[in-house]
Amino acid sequence: MRLRNIPGSREAIAANRWCIQEPEGAKGAWKDIFGNGNPIHIEIGMGKGQFLMRLARENPHINYVGIEKYSSVLLRALQKMEECPLDNIRFIRMDAEDLCLVFGQGEVGRIYLNFSDPWPKDRHAKRRLTSRQFFSRYQMVLAGSGAVEFKTDNAGLFDFSLEEVGAAGWRLDGVTRDLHHDPAMGGGNVMTEYEERFSAMGNPIHKLIASR
Ligand code: SAM
Predict the structure, then answer these.
(1) Beta strands 108-114; 89-93: pairing state
(2) 74 C-alpha vs ligand 1 centroid, how far in Å?
(3) What is the pLDDT of residue 2?
């Protein structure tokens, strides 16, 4: 994601009704925040939020939480929400390393990772959102029936992720190297901003679904 600092973005987020201002206070209190006990699905590294907002519109009985590290990026999602408000979505500006401070055991039903940063240097492998270190965080917040869904066009990152699923002791429920030509896994696919861009360039989209 190309980053341009937008002056005032932090202040805009701090005053926004869809942003959780004190994320650590949300742990164990998500039912109160949404005002219902519907399942909670999260996207980590949601960028400008196109994917999550489409899901939220299509699935009003699921609550969605978008997590994004950078305020300048998150601000774009918040601007879209002003145009088309949705009750079943909230956002948090934070680093996903702190996931377990914000969600309690079993509070999350599904985790989406879309076109996550590849962190190409080996010494940065544990920063990849599909590293075994992140899978152990996901294990701490996911419900027993929960799953992680990961999409990317980066074949190297995808190979790494397949290995990490096994190393973390998770199982693969689905794998494809060409999502857009895979009738079984591609049905009902909702495209992200990056997915639209990379598939328009002819890159095949890889996807895996993993559970414990
Ligand atoms: N998911 C979007 C899509 O597919 O269009 C955006 C993909 S973009 C390449 C990756 C996004 O993940 C960026 O907005 C980046 O700031 C965010 N990100 C990367 N590492 C993160 C982390 N540890 N915690 C939260 N967000 C992160």
Answers:
(1) unpaired
(2) 10
(3) 46
Q: Is 201 left (phi over 0), alpha (psi -120 to 50) or beta?
A: alpha
Tell the residue nearest (CA) to atom 20 of ligand 1: 45
Q: Hey, whose CA ends up nearest to atom 27 of ligand 1? A: 45
Nearest CA to ligand 1 atom 14: 47
User: What does the DSSP 8-state code read for residue 185?
Assistant: H
Pocket perturbation via mutation, ligand 1, pick of 69, 99, 137 by most ligand atoms within 8 A of CB: 69
43 Cα nearest atom in ligand 1: 1
Element (H, E) at 30: helix 30-34
- Report d(CA 147, CA 53) in Å as an integer: 20
The span from the CA of 50 to the CA of 59, in Å, is 14
Amino acid at 173: D
Total-model pTM: 0.96
Q: What does the angle CA 76 – CA 186 – CA 136 come to, to the nearest 5 degrees?
A: 65
**CA-to-CA distance for 64 and 186, rounded, in angstroms?**
21
> How many alpha carbons fall within 13 Å on the CB side of residue 158?
21
Q: Model confidence over 83-107: pLDDT tens digits?
A: 999 999 999 999 999 999 999 999 9
d(CA 116, CA 71): 17
